[in-house]
Amino acid sequence: MTDTSDTRPAEDEARAPRPSRLHRLMRFIPLIAPVLLWSVPCWVLLYGGQHWPAAVTAAGTALFVLGLVGMPISMVRGHGRRQQDRLAIVGDTLLGTSWVLFTWSVLLGVLLRLALTVAGVGDGQDRARLVTWAVLGISAVLLAWGYTEARRVPRVRRLDVQLPRLGTGLDGLRVALITDTHYGPLDRARWSERVCETVNTLEADVVCHTGDIADGTAERRRAQALPLGTVRATRARVYVTGNHEYYSEAQGWVDLMDELGWEPLRNRHLLLERGGDTLVVAGVDDVTAESSGLAGHRAHLDGALSGADPDLPVLLLAHQPKFIDRAAAAGIDLQLSGHTHGGQIWPFHYLVRIDQPAVAGLSRHGARTLLYTSRGTGFWGPPFRVFAPSEITLLVLRSPRADA
Questions:
Q1: pTM for the whole structure
Q2: CATH number, domain with residue 262
Q3: Which domain holds residue 224?
Q4: How many domains does the chain have?
């Protein structure tokens, strides 16, 4: 027998595809992004023709360098193994601040300066200084407003959704949706209580949580999540995992939600009957579940619908909108999702659209399938929401035959 053990590694290595140039460049994004986020506004505000006094330029540059260095260090220490919440808050706040400064430095650094030039306002230095003050003023207002928006109890968004296969007995079924609560470094236990109180005023038949409960383990964020146990529904409280659960011991969150009286729909369904008609309420694990390595966790739509009458209408809970392709192929009537936060801080929603088929609201996919994408109830990371308000959603399901 010939020993081929020495040659196999070389053969395997020869067969292995080389990473694409794009894949190799993606590795550098965590290094490139912070530099761009801090260096662009630094240039626009301090060096783009303003000719500030040397002390102003030096002090401003020092602040930007401090942000550039402090942001990644704070985020790594805050969200890494050490889980230092105070540093996480600092890092997240710096991330949101840098994004707003970057956005408006780019927009005003080009558009406002061009408009001032066309209008013949001042000389080059005057225009540069006007841009600087405009960027600082708009950024300060948006950050203050965005912080208030992020920390408030979301407004309720109400809409009727007509499902052609829904029986008349289920017409008017009230479905409340919360998602992406993201309990985290900022203690929001009181906010959590007020959100649950608001949900209870809706007198919903079904209350859904479509994942990303928290950033951190169930043990660590338990106090903030406990108010979820007070949520009331006349028929069911159902929950599916989001991708952030799989960063933080997902099974612990499944167990806690079960303890709080919620029904974890892990690739399974329940039947809701009213007035002689039936609705299938199904749920799947997040699409990242299988790659998490957690035994038994994966997004499995066939398993979720196993045993259900294919002629019945289906309400599906799936954390990410991108699951809609599979849902539409299976003829699902309505999928409820979150994940996108509506972009959270404008104009991040343009980047979200690269990865997801919808950012917010109701959309149609295929001949029968509707998708509702919530902007989320809480916020992730930076404690700001700019032009992407949070929401608690009340969907009233309608049967077209009810008006006949």
A1: 0.90
A2: 3.60.21.10
A3: 154-403
A4: 2
Coil, helix or strand for 325?
helix
- As a whole number of angstroms, the distance between CA 297 and CA 282 comes to 16
| pLDDT by position in tens, the chain (length 404) | 444 434 344 444 334 445 545 455 556 666 788 999 999 999 999 998 888 999 999 999 999 999 999 999 999 999 988 789 999 999 999 999 999 999 999 999 989 888 988 888 777 788 899 999 999 999 999 999 999 999 999 999 999 999 999 999 999 999 999 999 999 999 999 999 999 999 999 999 999 999 999 999 999 999 999 999 999 999 999 999 999 999 999 999 999 999 999 999 999 999 999 999 999 999 999 999 999 989 999 999 999 999 999 999 999 999 999 999 999 999 999 999 999 999 999 999 999 999 999 999 999 999 999 999 999 999 999 999 999 999 999 999 999 987 76
User: If you search the block for the tokens 């917010």, which residue do you land on?
Assistant: 360
Distance of alpha carbon 195 from the chain centroid:
18
Phi-psi region of 278 (alpha: psi -120 to 50; beta: other; left: phi over 0): beta
Let me know whether 317 and 169 are in one domain.
yes
146 and 170 in a common domain = no
159 and 227 share a domain? yes
Q: Which of 95, 128, 150 is the last residue of a domain?
A: 150
Q: How many residues does the chain have?
A: 404
In degrees, rounded to 5, the angle at the alpha carbon of residue 120 between the alpha carbons of residues 114 and 125 is: 70
Q: Are residues 366 and 394 in the same domain?
A: yes
